[in-house]
Specification:
Layout lengths: L1 H9 L8 E7 L3 E6 L3 E7 L2 E4 L4 E5 L1 H5 L8 E4 L2 E2 L2 E2 L2 H20 L8 E7 L5 H13 L4 E6 H8 L10 E6 L4 E7 L2 E8 L3 H16 L1 E2 L2 H11 L8 E8 L5 E7 H24 L3 H10 L1 E4 L8 H9 L3 E3 L6 H11 L1 H7 L3
Parallel strand pairs: 1-9, 9-10, 11-17, 17-18
Antiparallel strand pairs: 1-2, 2-3, 4-5, 4-6, 7-8, 11-12, 12-13, 14-15, 15-16
Helix pairs in contact: 3-4, 5-11, 6-7, 6-8
Amino acid sequence: MFNFIEKIGKIKLPFFSGAELYFDLGTSTTRIAVKDKGIAYKEPTYLGYNSKIKEFIFFGKEAKTILGKTPDFIRIVRPVVNGVISDFDAEVSLIQKAMEKAVQPYFSNLLLKPPFQAFGIVPSVATEIEQKAAEEALLKAGCSGVSLIEKPIATAAGCNFNIFSHQPNLIVDLGGGLIEMAIVSGGGIVNQKTLKNAGDHMDKLIYNYVYLKYGVILGESTCESLKTNLLHFQKEEKTATVRGKSLESGLPKSIRIKTSEIREALLTHLNQILDGIKELIEGSPPETIDEIFKRGIMLTGGLANIKGIDGFFANEIKIDVICAENPDDVTIHGLMKIAKNKEHLSKLVIR
């Protein structure tokens, strides 16, 4: 009976237009936008699973808040790792909950719920199986149709670049699960390089640094807040007091951490990103390099919010570096932009 109702709901009626939804299923943050409404949902990609009742009971911000504070029977799950789905059922549950919370209110006053046409993004390095997983997750969550686009293309559109122009643009997306570097031109990717050691890996480096230097164990959330609040590339020296567990006594211990220490902990990692950009440029045709030198490099993603990171990169690479406006949401805005032009969309959809 329920399957029959679901099938009826997915029938496309000529007089009953569907609703377009846009999904950025990120490693750190899940974003959902509704056509003509903008971003409706933006929360961390975390869930809390209760093994006693075998159900997901915490979602998004709430699940992230309780990280490290739960009893044994509640497990915090991160369904997306390195930009691709690693726990299919958890991701479906998260999308369903997000749609129920943020999307359904827009259509609650309608007698018949419109079919949802979903537009999603996948990393340029995603395999066919990983692309299929993203498609199936959106279908299982209640969407009637799914179109997928490569992330660098959507990001380029969100930066207000003409993605069909033959002027190459180098975009570096500094995300939580992946660092994606791509040269976009002529409606496709000319050259790309991906690093899996992204924002989440930086939290682990801070954990290791504090562990070795101070003999203190910090929680995942504390390491992330140190990165967010202290890391910058300006002259100002910030200080934060954090509390962790002492290795000596096992009791709480407070320590003061400076900006210079966070930079020291992450310098090797930042140099790896710079080396990746240099390798990408070196492996590109000379004409492309000339254009990139003139136009500069665009930084997007959460780490692009770090103050002074554009100047730090520009000083090392000797090419102008620009941070995108509102770098966190550039990709989903680009996806919305692409979906508006159906003629262009058909040329960019990968499945």
